[in-house]
Amino acid sequence: MTARLARWSLLLLTILLLAIWIPQAKELLFDDRFGKTQLFYSPVIERFVYKELIGEGHQFVYRDQDGTDYDRESFETLIPFIYYKNMELWGRLPLVLGEHRFDKAAIVAERQVMEFKPQDLSDQTPRIQLFPLLESNPERARLRFPEDIMRPGERLDFIDSDANRLDPELTRTFTQALEQAGFRFPVRAAFGRVSILKAFDAGYFLLDSGGALFHLRRLDGAPEVAAVPIPEGIAVRDIKVTENKRHELIGFLLAEDGRLFLMTERDHDLIALDLPGYDPDRMELKILFNPLYRTAVYSDRETIHAVVMDRDYHPIDRYARRMAMARERPVDRVWEMLVPFNLNLHDPDSRYLSLDVRFHGLAAAIGVAASLLLALEILRLRGIRPTRARMDLLLVLFTGLYGLLALILIPPEHGLET
């Protein structure tokens, strides 16, 4: 009984490990190198254009939404705000688009990229609730980390990083400043960008116990607190702070119902983004700014979408297409016939480890049948009747190739009934 239990424990552990390792080996051997499609809006032809890798090596296509192909240089001239440095080298500056004229300085002044990925969500990323509250007026060329750390909770604690002791004076000063501004403890969430490699420091946005939002900065060593008015019907799920030298926008605000907003830096006004089909939990979003348009490009692993907007964020046009990387490869079809399921420990949309099981359905029947036949042959060669290894065969029936390999590695003993 003990030997049988030990063997079956080893069998199940082996199958678990094989179901994780073999798919990883397959991905390493047959890596998909296509990558995502690069989608833009051309201010020259006023159509969507894209660059896509369609084969091994550097088999790129440069195409517009109508299917017209371009060579690389012609394609780059269609999106001159992206390739403005090439335009300068080719003597095509200043740009003249309709009645508008743009020199290099005008282009650079309006260029900006904002990104929001599933991994940026607070509930998709493990985070120790300790935050450095930088000095927003450092009186020097670069930002630097403070000697204390902020810990939001029942109050706003400040801990001396060197001594690892609570700083009662800073704690009292900042906690009282928040309370006087109407903040209700405990702190539900803190949103900010932990880095000194940014244009300036915008501090943190704190969500109180009632769902109200406040903006906190350290200015000349003292707390600066401002309540952020949130329109009725909007419950804050997340905020991504993105300081930029243009000083127009401070970041994204994601509502609990999935709506996404841009937040202005000066007054913290919210600008609603009309993004049909956008899912923040599984789609990467990028907003491209230029002197004429704002283009939102968002995608999962199959379809890429784009919405071009005017400078006031009113939609002008939309486009979506299935990417080349989403096309099923022959190796993927063979793989789904070979094994009945995959076990994945990594969710590409999250920084957490997770156990994700993906079943291959009826396609795996061929692989399961072949595994059963091979298992019967292995038992025959070892002189074991199938009736004495019923549970082993049942295991192969449900786990296919994984169970077959486990049976080869840990075969039944001649005198041991299973």
Short synopsis of the structure:
The chain is of the alpha+beta class and 418 residues long. It contains 9 helices and 23 strands. It folds into 3 domains: 108 residues, no CATH class; 112 residues, no CATH class; 171 residues, no CATH class.
Describe the structure in your own words.
By secondary structure, the protein is an alpha+beta fold. It contains 9 helices and 23 strands. Helix 8 packs across helix 9. It is flat and about 80 Å long.
Query: Which secondary-structure class do the elements indicate?
Result: alpha+beta
Task: Summarize the main sheet.
Answer: 5 strands, antiparallel
Helix coverage percent of residues? 25-40%
Note the gap between the termini. Answer: 11 Å
What gross morphology would you assign? flat
Q: Please, how many helices?
A: 9
How confident overall, as mean pLDDT? 92
Rounded to the nearest angstrom, the radius of gyration is: 29 Å
Strand content: 25-35%
Number of domains: 3
* Low-confidence runs of at least 5 consecutive residues: none
| Overall strand count | 23
Sequence of strands across the biggest β-sheet = 6-18-19-20-21
Transmembrane segments: 359-379, 391-410
Protein name: DUF4857 domain-containing protein
Organism: Imhoffiella purpurea
Keywords: Membrane, Transmembrane, Transmembrane helix
